[in-house]
Request: fold
Amino acid sequence: MLRSADLDAAVLLWGNLFLFLALGTSTVALLVRATGFLLARTAQPDPVTLENLGALGLDILAILARILLPLLAANWLVALANQLAQHGLQLHTNLLQPKFSKLNPASGFKRLLSIRSGIDLIKSLLKFVLLAWVTYAVLAPRMPAILATMRLPLGQDLALMQDTLFVLYRNIMMALLVVAAADFLWQRHQFEEGMKMTKQEVKDEAREAEGNPEIKSKQKSMLIAAAVRRITTHVPRASVVITNPTHFAVALRYGDDTAAPVLVAKGVDHMALKIRERAQATGVPVVENPPLARAVYRSVDLDQPIPAELYQAVAQVLAYVYHLKRVA
Reply:
Protein backbone atom coordinates (compact mmCIF):
# COMPACT_ATOMS: atom_id res chain seq x y z
CA MET A 1 0.00 0.00 0.00
CA LEU A 2 1.31 3.48 -0.92
CA ARG A 3 2.09 5.44 2.24
CA SER A 4 4.44 8.34 3.04
CA ALA A 5 5.38 8.69 6.71
CA ASP A 6 6.89 12.13 6.03
CA LEU A 7 3.61 13.33 4.55
CA ASP A 8 1.73 12.06 7.60
CA ALA A 9 4.16 13.90 9.90
CA ALA A 10 3.90 17.14 7.90
CA VAL A 11 0.10 17.03 7.99
CA LEU A 12 0.10 16.48 11.76
CA LEU A 13 2.59 19.33 12.33
CA TRP A 14 0.59 21.76 10.24
CA GLY A 15 -2.56 20.62 11.98
CA ASN A 16 -0.97 21.26 15.37
CA LEU A 17 0.09 24.73 14.29
CA PHE A 18 -3.49 25.69 13.52
CA LEU A 19 -4.60 24.00 16.75
CA PHE A 20 -2.18 26.11 18.77
CA LEU A 21 -3.31 29.25 16.95
CA ALA A 22 -6.95 28.39 17.66
CA LEU A 23 -6.62 26.97 21.20
CA GLY A 24 -3.42 28.62 22.40
CA THR A 25 -5.06 31.56 24.19
CA SER A 26 -7.62 29.44 26.00
CA THR A 27 -4.99 26.83 26.87
CA VAL A 28 -2.65 29.43 28.36
CA ALA A 29 -5.51 30.92 30.33
CA LEU A 30 -6.41 27.48 31.63
CA LEU A 31 -2.78 26.88 32.62
CA VAL A 32 -2.69 30.18 34.50
CA ARG A 33 -5.85 29.38 36.41
CA ALA A 34 -4.63 25.84 37.12
CA THR A 35 -1.28 27.14 38.40
CA GLY A 36 -3.03 29.61 40.66
CA PHE A 37 -5.35 26.89 41.94
CA LEU A 38 -2.47 24.53 42.70
CA LEU A 39 -0.47 27.27 44.44
CA ALA A 40 -3.47 28.12 46.53
CA ARG A 41 -3.94 24.47 47.46
CA THR A 42 -0.32 24.04 48.48
CA ALA A 43 -0.41 27.27 50.52
CA GLN A 44 -3.19 25.97 52.76
CA PRO A 45 -1.97 25.12 56.30
CA ASP A 46 -3.75 21.76 56.35
CA PRO A 47 -1.56 18.85 57.47
CA VAL A 48 -0.27 16.56 54.73
CA THR A 49 -2.21 13.30 54.73
CA LEU A 50 -2.82 10.50 52.26
CA GLU A 51 -6.32 11.82 51.72
CA ASN A 52 -5.04 15.32 50.92
CA LEU A 53 -2.41 13.93 48.54
CA GLY A 54 -5.00 11.76 46.81
CA ALA A 55 -7.33 14.71 46.32
CA LEU A 56 -4.47 16.85 45.04
CA GLY A 57 -3.48 14.10 42.59
CA LEU A 58 -7.04 13.87 41.27
CA ASP A 59 -7.14 17.63 40.83
CA ILE A 60 -3.88 17.55 38.85
CA LEU A 61 -5.21 14.72 36.64
CA ALA A 62 -8.43 16.64 36.02
CA ILE A 63 -6.45 19.76 35.01
CA LEU A 64 -4.19 17.76 32.68
CA ALA A 65 -7.21 16.10 31.12
CA ARG A 66 -8.86 19.48 30.45
CA ILE A 67 -5.65 20.72 28.83
CA LEU A 68 -4.51 17.65 26.90
CA LEU A 69 -7.71 15.85 25.88
CA PRO A 70 -8.86 18.54 23.39
CA LEU A 71 -5.41 18.56 21.78
CA LEU A 72 -5.21 14.75 21.65
CA ALA A 73 -8.74 14.46 20.25
CA ALA A 74 -7.98 17.09 17.61
CA ASN A 75 -4.75 15.28 16.66
CA TRP A 76 -6.65 12.00 16.35
CA LEU A 77 -9.22 13.64 14.06
CA VAL A 78 -6.44 15.18 11.92
CA ALA A 79 -4.69 11.78 11.61
CA LEU A 80 -7.99 10.08 10.75
CA ALA A 81 -8.80 12.70 8.11
CA ASN A 82 -5.32 12.26 6.63
CA GLN A 83 -5.79 8.48 6.48
CA LEU A 84 -9.18 8.80 4.82
CA ALA A 85 -7.86 11.35 2.31
CA GLN A 86 -4.87 9.21 1.29
CA HIS A 87 -6.17 5.66 1.48
CA GLY A 88 -9.83 5.62 2.49
CA LEU A 89 -11.20 3.55 5.35
CA GLN A 90 -9.22 0.31 5.69
CA LEU A 91 -9.32 -2.08 8.63
CA HIS A 92 -6.31 -4.38 9.00
CA THR A 93 -6.97 -6.83 11.83
CA ASN A 94 -3.98 -8.91 10.76
CA LEU A 95 -1.68 -6.20 12.13
CA LEU A 96 -2.82 -7.16 15.63
CA GLN A 97 -1.60 -10.72 15.18
CA PRO A 98 1.87 -11.43 16.61
CA LYS A 99 4.61 -12.13 14.08
CA PHE A 100 7.34 -14.19 15.71
CA SER A 101 9.44 -13.92 12.55
CA LYS A 102 10.24 -10.33 13.54
CA LEU A 103 12.00 -11.68 16.65
CA ASN A 104 14.47 -13.60 14.50
CA PRO A 105 17.86 -11.79 14.67
CA ALA A 106 18.84 -13.06 11.23
CA SER A 107 15.77 -11.45 9.68
CA GLY A 108 16.51 -8.23 11.56
CA PHE A 109 20.08 -8.06 10.26
CA LYS A 110 18.83 -8.85 6.78
CA ARG A 111 16.44 -5.91 6.93
CA LEU A 112 19.18 -3.64 8.28
CA LEU A 113 21.54 -4.57 5.45
CA SER A 114 18.92 -4.35 2.70
CA ILE A 115 18.89 -1.74 -0.06
CA ARG A 116 15.67 -0.25 1.30
CA SER A 117 17.29 0.30 4.71
CA GLY A 118 20.23 2.04 3.03
CA ILE A 119 17.87 4.33 1.12
CA ASP A 120 15.94 5.11 4.32
CA LEU A 121 19.23 5.97 6.07
CA ILE A 122 20.22 8.34 3.28
CA LYS A 123 16.77 9.97 3.41
CA SER A 124 17.06 10.44 7.19
CA LEU A 125 20.50 12.02 6.84
CA LEU A 126 19.26 14.39 4.15
CA LYS A 127 16.29 15.37 6.32
CA PHE A 128 18.61 16.00 9.28
CA VAL A 129 20.91 18.18 7.16
CA LEU A 130 17.96 20.12 5.78
CA LEU A 131 16.40 20.74 9.20
CA ALA A 132 19.80 21.70 10.67
CA TRP A 133 20.32 24.21 7.86
CA VAL A 134 16.83 25.68 8.37
CA THR A 135 17.46 26.00 12.12
CA TYR A 136 20.82 27.67 11.52
CA ALA A 137 19.31 30.05 8.95
CA VAL A 138 16.71 31.18 11.51
CA LEU A 139 18.87 31.36 14.65
CA ALA A 140 22.18 32.68 13.25
CA PRO A 141 21.01 36.22 12.43
CA ARG A 142 19.01 36.42 15.68
CA MET A 143 21.76 35.13 17.94
CA PRO A 144 23.09 38.59 18.97
CA ALA A 145 19.59 39.68 19.97
CA ILE A 146 19.00 36.42 21.84
CA LEU A 147 22.27 36.84 23.77
CA ALA A 148 21.29 40.42 24.62
CA THR A 149 17.97 39.39 26.17
CA MET A 150 19.63 39.13 29.58
CA ARG A 151 19.81 42.94 29.63
CA LEU A 152 16.27 43.49 28.33
CA PRO A 153 12.99 43.65 30.25
CA LEU A 154 11.08 40.36 30.64
CA GLY A 155 8.33 41.44 28.27
CA GLN A 156 10.76 42.12 25.43
CA ASP A 157 12.55 38.83 26.09
CA LEU A 158 9.30 36.88 25.84
CA ALA A 159 8.25 38.72 22.68
CA LEU A 160 11.60 37.99 21.01
CA MET A 161 11.54 34.33 22.01
CA GLN A 162 7.93 33.97 20.86
CA ASP A 163 8.72 35.52 17.48
CA THR A 164 11.87 33.39 17.08
CA LEU A 165 10.07 30.15 17.95
CA PHE A 166 7.21 30.96 15.59
CA VAL A 167 9.57 31.66 12.66
CA LEU A 168 11.62 28.55 13.46
CA TYR A 169 8.53 26.34 13.68
CA ARG A 170 7.09 27.81 10.48
CA ASN A 171 10.28 27.35 8.48
CA ILE A 172 10.81 23.82 9.77
CA MET A 173 7.28 22.91 8.74
CA MET A 174 7.82 24.42 5.29
CA ALA A 175 10.96 22.31 4.94
CA LEU A 176 9.09 19.22 6.15
CA LEU A 177 6.36 19.93 3.63
CA VAL A 178 8.97 19.91 0.84
CA VAL A 179 10.44 16.68 2.25
CA ALA A 180 6.94 15.16 2.47
CA ALA A 181 6.17 16.03 -1.17
CA ALA A 182 9.48 14.52 -2.31
CA ASP A 183 8.94 11.41 -0.18
CA PHE A 184 5.39 11.01 -1.50
CA LEU A 185 6.64 11.14 -5.09
CA TRP A 186 9.39 8.64 -4.25
CA GLN A 187 6.97 6.27 -2.50
CA ARG A 188 4.59 6.54 -5.43
CA HIS A 189 7.43 5.71 -7.84
CA GLN A 190 8.46 2.74 -5.69
CA PHE A 191 4.86 1.55 -5.45
CA GLU A 192 4.35 1.73 -9.22
CA GLU A 193 7.67 -0.03 -9.84
CA GLY A 194 6.72 -2.72 -7.33
CA MET A 195 3.42 -3.30 -9.13
CA LYS A 196 5.17 -3.90 -12.45
CA MET A 197 6.01 -7.44 -13.45
CA THR A 198 9.47 -8.58 -14.38
CA LYS A 199 10.19 -10.04 -17.82
CA GLN A 200 10.20 -13.52 -16.33
CA GLU A 201 6.83 -12.92 -14.65
CA VAL A 202 5.38 -11.69 -17.96
CA LYS A 203 6.68 -14.82 -19.68
CA ASP A 204 5.29 -17.05 -16.92
CA GLU A 205 1.89 -15.37 -17.09
CA ALA A 206 1.79 -15.67 -20.88
CA ARG A 207 2.76 -19.32 -20.59
CA GLU A 208 0.02 -19.93 -18.03
CA ALA A 209 -2.55 -18.08 -20.15
CA GLU A 210 -1.66 -19.87 -23.37
CA GLY A 211 -0.61 -23.14 -21.81
CA ASN A 212 2.86 -24.49 -21.23
CA PRO A 213 4.28 -25.47 -24.66
CA GLU A 214 5.94 -28.56 -23.22
CA ILE A 215 2.71 -29.71 -21.58
CA LYS A 216 0.70 -28.90 -24.70
CA SER A 217 3.16 -30.83 -26.85
CA LYS A 218 3.02 -33.79 -24.49
CA GLN A 219 -0.79 -33.70 -24.44
CA LYS A 220 -0.87 -33.56 -28.24
CA SER A 221 1.47 -36.55 -28.46
CA MET A 222 -0.74 -38.49 -26.05
CA LEU A 223 -3.86 -37.65 -28.08
CA ILE A 224 -2.17 -38.74 -31.32
CA ALA A 225 -1.00 -41.98 -29.71
CA ALA A 226 -4.52 -42.68 -28.42
CA ALA A 227 -5.99 -41.99 -31.88
CA VAL A 228 -3.49 -44.32 -33.52
CA ARG A 229 -4.29 -47.09 -31.01
CA ARG A 230 -7.99 -46.64 -31.70
CA ILE A 231 -7.42 -46.80 -35.45
CA THR A 232 -5.29 -49.93 -35.08
CA THR A 233 -7.82 -51.78 -32.92
CA HIS A 234 -11.22 -50.51 -34.14
CA VAL A 235 -10.86 -49.99 -37.89
CA PRO A 236 -10.38 -53.74 -38.63
CA ARG A 237 -13.77 -54.40 -36.98
CA ALA A 238 -15.53 -51.67 -38.98
CA SER A 239 -18.14 -52.44 -41.63
CA VAL A 240 -17.12 -49.58 -43.93
CA VAL A 241 -14.79 -46.58 -44.10
CA ILE A 242 -16.23 -43.48 -45.77
CA THR A 243 -13.74 -40.91 -47.10
CA ASN A 244 -13.66 -37.38 -48.50
CA PRO A 245 -11.48 -38.87 -50.23
CA THR A 246 -8.31 -37.38 -48.67
CA HIS A 247 -9.21 -34.88 -45.91
CA PHE A 248 -11.82 -36.83 -43.93
CA ALA A 249 -12.27 -40.49 -43.07
CA VAL A 250 -14.83 -42.14 -40.78
CA ALA A 251 -15.15 -45.82 -39.86
CA LEU A 252 -18.62 -47.22 -39.13
CA ARG A 253 -19.53 -50.57 -37.61
CA TYR A 254 -22.96 -52.15 -38.03
CA GLY A 255 -23.99 -55.55 -36.80
CA ASP A 256 -26.57 -57.55 -34.90
CA ASP A 257 -25.48 -56.00 -31.58
CA THR A 258 -26.07 -52.41 -32.74
CA ALA A 259 -29.43 -50.77 -33.43
CA ALA A 260 -27.76 -48.25 -35.77
CA PRO A 261 -24.30 -47.85 -37.33
CA VAL A 262 -21.76 -46.72 -34.71
CA LEU A 263 -18.77 -44.45 -35.33
CA VAL A 264 -15.64 -46.32 -34.20
CA ALA A 265 -12.91 -44.08 -35.67
CA LYS A 266 -12.57 -40.75 -37.42
CA GLY A 267 -9.79 -38.43 -38.52
CA VAL A 268 -8.66 -35.63 -40.80
CA ASP A 269 -5.62 -35.29 -43.02
CA HIS A 270 -2.85 -37.46 -41.51
CA MET A 271 -5.25 -39.44 -39.32
CA ALA A 272 -7.59 -39.90 -42.27
CA LEU A 273 -4.69 -41.41 -44.21
CA LYS A 274 -3.95 -43.75 -41.27
CA ILE A 275 -7.59 -44.91 -41.27
CA ARG A 276 -7.57 -45.59 -45.02
CA GLU A 277 -4.27 -47.46 -44.84
CA ARG A 278 -5.46 -49.58 -41.92
CA ALA A 279 -8.75 -50.34 -43.70
CA GLN A 280 -6.99 -51.37 -46.90
CA ALA A 281 -4.54 -53.52 -44.94
CA THR A 282 -7.32 -55.38 -43.13
CA GLY A 283 -9.78 -55.65 -46.03
CA VAL A 284 -12.37 -53.17 -44.79
CA PRO A 285 -14.29 -51.58 -47.71
CA VAL A 286 -13.44 -47.91 -48.40
CA VAL A 287 -16.15 -45.82 -50.05
CA GLU A 288 -15.71 -42.24 -51.28
CA ASN A 289 -18.63 -40.03 -50.32
CA PRO A 290 -17.37 -36.51 -49.39
CA PRO A 291 -20.67 -34.99 -48.13
CA LEU A 292 -21.49 -38.00 -45.97
CA ALA A 293 -17.91 -38.28 -44.64
CA ARG A 294 -17.94 -34.61 -43.56
CA ALA A 295 -21.43 -34.87 -42.04
CA VAL A 296 -20.57 -37.96 -39.98
CA TYR A 297 -17.26 -36.51 -38.83
CA ARG A 298 -18.82 -33.24 -37.62
CA SER A 299 -22.07 -34.55 -36.11
CA VAL A 300 -21.14 -37.88 -34.45
CA ASP A 301 -18.86 -38.55 -31.50
CA LEU A 302 -16.75 -41.68 -31.14
CA ASP A 303 -18.62 -44.81 -30.04
CA GLN A 304 -21.95 -43.09 -30.69
CA PRO A 305 -24.62 -44.15 -33.23
CA ILE A 306 -25.28 -41.94 -36.24
CA PRO A 307 -28.31 -39.59 -36.03
CA ALA A 308 -31.59 -40.48 -37.68
CA GLU A 309 -31.16 -37.89 -40.45
CA LEU A 310 -28.15 -39.84 -41.75
CA TYR A 311 -29.81 -43.27 -41.72
CA GLN A 312 -30.78 -43.25 -45.41
CA ALA A 313 -27.40 -42.07 -46.72
CA VAL A 314 -25.47 -44.58 -44.56
CA ALA A 315 -27.93 -47.37 -45.45
CA GLN A 316 -27.24 -46.79 -49.15
CA VAL A 317 -23.47 -47.04 -48.52
CA LEU A 318 -23.89 -50.23 -46.48
CA ALA A 319 -26.18 -51.74 -49.14
CA TYR A 320 -23.53 -50.98 -51.74
CA VAL A 321 -20.85 -52.64 -49.58
CA TYR A 322 -22.98 -55.73 -48.98
CA HIS A 323 -23.68 -55.95 -52.71
CA LEU A 324 -19.94 -55.87 -53.44
CA LYS A 325 -19.33 -58.64 -50.92
CA ARG A 326 -22.03 -60.86 -52.49
CA VAL A 327 -20.64 -60.26 -55.98
CA ALA A 328 -17.14 -61.08 -54.78
User: Anything to note?
Assistant: The mean pLDDT is 76. The chain has three domains: 1-85, 104-196, 221-327.
